[in-house]
Amino acid sequence: MSDNPTVRNSWDIPGVPDGFQRLWVPHRIGYITGTAGRSADECVFCVATELDEEENLVVFQGDTCYVVLNLFPYNPGHLLICPYRHISTYDETTAEEAAEMAVLTKQAMVLLRQVANAHGFNIGMNQGAVAGAGIEGHLHQHVVPRWHQDSNFFPIIAKTKAMPQTLGDIRSQLRTAWFSQTPS
User: Fold this and answer.
1) Which residues contact 162 (CB under 8 A, 6 or more apart)?
2) Residue 70 above 70 pLDDT?
3) What is the pLDDT of residues 1-37, one digit of tens each?
4) Do 122 and 173 contact (CB within 8 A), yes or no?
5) Mind listing the domains of the chain with CATH numbers?
6) How far apart are CA 178 and CA 72, in angstroms?
7) Which residues contact 38 (CB under 8 A, 6 or more apart)?
8) Is 154 exposed, middle or buried (0-12, 13-18, 19+ CB in 10 A)?
9) pLDDT band at 104 (very low <50, low <70, confident <90, very high)
10) Among positive and negative, which fits the CA dihedral 92, 96, 101, 105?
């Protein structure tokens, strides 16, 4: 046990255990408070391409849109396709942005099949808080790879996702694949 008086065995603290497992993720407090290393008015998507290549999760940059890994993925390889412009809904896209989002979605599917052996995909956009958008100010399309039997008891019973691959590993694989071929 630690010499730190604030670190104690939970069984030594008065109260009744509730049976829940705790997954401590203090790095997420910045997202809760809106201060994740940046000012609260900065958009995480707008700054994604400004970070150093080794620090960002950007997989590919196109002319009007780019592809970035979701920092809190549903499955490994969960990609987000974002226009560079800070717009909130699909009907605000230009014809060029909408076309490039479609092309990048197709390319993402091809490459996720190749790199991660994806069996299927969930593709969609949540626009507005009422529709489930976690970040409603900047339009982004989800491309979530799926596999047969990729759901198990963890998310259902333990509210936990088992992630068999790190973001850095899948980012490297997708970057390499994206630049080594031109899928149609």
Assistant:
1) 152, 154
2) yes
3) 455 555 555 556 566 556 666 666 665 665 556 555 5
4) no
5) 20-180 (3.30.428.10)
6) 22
7) 44, 47
8) exposed
9) very high
10) positive
Residue 72, token pair as written in the block: 């809190």
| Annotation marks residue 140 as catalytic | yes
The tokens for 57 are 């999760």
Two tokens, residue 151: 């759901």
**For range 117-126, the mean pLDDT:** 94
Residue range 73-86, pLDDT digits in tens: 888 899 999 999 99
Q: Of residues 78, 119, 138, 140, which has the active-site annotation?
A: 140
- pLDDT score, position 86: 94
36, two tokens: 């994740």
Q: Which residue has the tokens 């979701």?
A: 70
**Do the beta carbons of residue 97 and residue 148 sit within 8 Å?**
no
- Residue 92's nearest CA partner among 62, 129, 64 is 64
